[in-house]
Fold these 2 entries.
Entry 1:
Amino acid sequence: MRPENTRLPRCSAPAWLCLLVAAALVLLSACGSDTPGSTGTAATLTPTTVVQTPTPTSAQPTPTPAPGYTQVVLITDNSNGSFGFTPPKLAIRAGTTVIWKNRSSAPHTVTSDDGTTFDSGTVAVGGTFHFTFKTAGTFSYHCNIHPYMRSVIIVV
Ligand SMILES: [Cu+2]
């Protein structure tokens, strides 16, 4: 029943407008496929492999050996202007690490009396020296700068 011309596209606009729209659509699609690199997907798909495993920098060296205990001997100013080891006598178990901390106002040494077991060299103000006593014995020591500074470590 319908007229024959209903098979035509329902374009009520003039034919040139339909052609223009069609041409614009073609141009748009062509543009979309003509620019792959400038703004399109190719640029964003380039993998940026900058994932690096962070190096653990928080691991601080433990100053004391694992199996041992630590004991601290302070090097201090005395009220009369002299210096001393505190405590002046210390008993420890074998394997203990003794840490001398120079809290005084002058440099010192921590030197075993036998001259060979341990010798800190000059320990600056605020500096430290440590030694691990692995064998039992009585280890008297002194300061080379102030020979009156004497102390003893007894290792059992
Ligand atoms: Cu001294």
Entry 2:
Amino acid sequence: MAHAHRVVVIGSGFAGLFATRRLRHAPVDITVIDRTTHHLFQPLLYQVATGILSEGDVAPAIRDVLRRQDNARVLLGEVFDIDLEARTVTSRMLDDQTTVSYDTLIVATGAAQSYFGHDEFARHAPGLKSIDDALEVRGRIFGAFEMAELETDPGRREAWLTFALVGAGPTGVEMAGQIAELSRQSLRGRYTNIDTTSARILLLDGAPRILPAFDERLSKRVADHLRGMGVEIHTGATVVDVDDDSVEIQHQSGDRSRVATKTKVWTAGVQASSLGRLLAEKTGAELTKSGQVKVLPDCTLPGHPEVFVVGDLMSLNSLPGLAEVAIQSGLHAAAVIKRRLAGDLTRDATQERFRYIDLGTLAAISRYYAVGQRGRAQVWGLLGWLIWLAVHLVFLTGFKNRLLALVSWIVTFFGRTRYERTITLRQVTARRALEGSDGQTDGRRTPCCQARNSTTFAVPRALRLAA
Ligand SMILES: Cc1cc2nc3c(=O)[nH]c(=O)nc-3n(C[C@H](O)[C@H](O)[C@H](O)COP(=O)(O)OP(=O)(O)OC[C@H]3O[C@@H](n4cnc5c(N)ncnc54)[C@H](O)[C@@H]3O)c2cc1C
């Protein structure tokens, strides 16, 4: 008996999920493979890192999201091989290795943080790409205030109260705004020995202005707004070294300076998933500098019409790495698969071209202040923030997640507090533990997992280990 057309989707991010859902009523058997168990709404990771949302709010289980889709199954595994001749995908999880056959393959594995050849910076300056990253950053930020409270040396205390955001794109700018609100409002008066409002927040970027993807006028508005909140903006300032206690900055003049800071977050640069390199090695496909696969206008791999590369991993017409590009390219791949299965071969091949509709971009800087642009139209301030709120409520996956996020936003924006402040020793030291250099992350000695709205006393020890 002939089997149904087998579609394998690698990655349950925006591109993979939207492609899968669009194939819901198609005569296909879909296998979604991801190395995590969730669909992650990356644009709100910064709110997990700064105590507004819980990790569950932005990362529903992919099995739950697809529970009503009978033609889709979910596999946990990290894909490490794609055999384009045999049409199989092989993944592993712990000691288990799984090989799955496909008739059509959708590769949607996104991108990771790039440290521009300095991966050693990652242990001192985590990025913000995963739930692990967000919880580690949360641990470092809230832990820094705890350590500052204990510190008696003024210089070291200042270093604990200095936060450096490397990269002034939307994520860096949003993080700067949130840490400013935290220190000036949410944590104000919570400590005995420190004045949290004296915290220094540095936003560092080698580019001449912040938010380079936005119009210059919006970028200036945001810079003025952030300065008003107490953020120090240093443009033309390239971070050339990072260690436990400081960052070294190279200024446009060529001069270098070092700033003492215990808490660094890296939001500059992306590197496409390594499956891009794998596909390029096997097919000779071209890659961009950041490792994206140059695809044909219909989002397929050159020479392989049965393989789609979509989302952040795809390079086409210089489209930016945005959720909306990922969603639309995933939907496009699904639409082409459906047309092919329907035997709709009379269409002109140009109809298979992916056409991106720009719906605009938004960045929320602080409560009641966001900026956005679509084409030449621009919004900022309260109106921008209301649009930001509506868009994120619509796009968050799942009714429960929307509801929980809305409640958390009401509490945070009207109550000026942060309820998701739980941090644990393991979160803060995880990166070291993974590197095998920290033998002390023994859970039995970890007084972790406090209730909502609490800080944990594991932090001082954790940060000593991390520092
Ligand atoms: C902090 C942050 C803020 C952002 N803010 C915005 C914003 O405000 N607006 C906007 O439009 N965009 C924003 N973006 C960009 C947007 O999130 C991405 O463009 C989008 O997530 C890309 O979707 P994707 O499906 O291509 O990849 P992803 O969403 O990254 O999904 C890739 C999936 O593949 C899985 N995977 C990777 N490698 C493997 C493997 N080898 N085997 C199995 N699974 C694998 C991953 O676990 C992941 O689930 C932001 C991104 C970040 C990191």
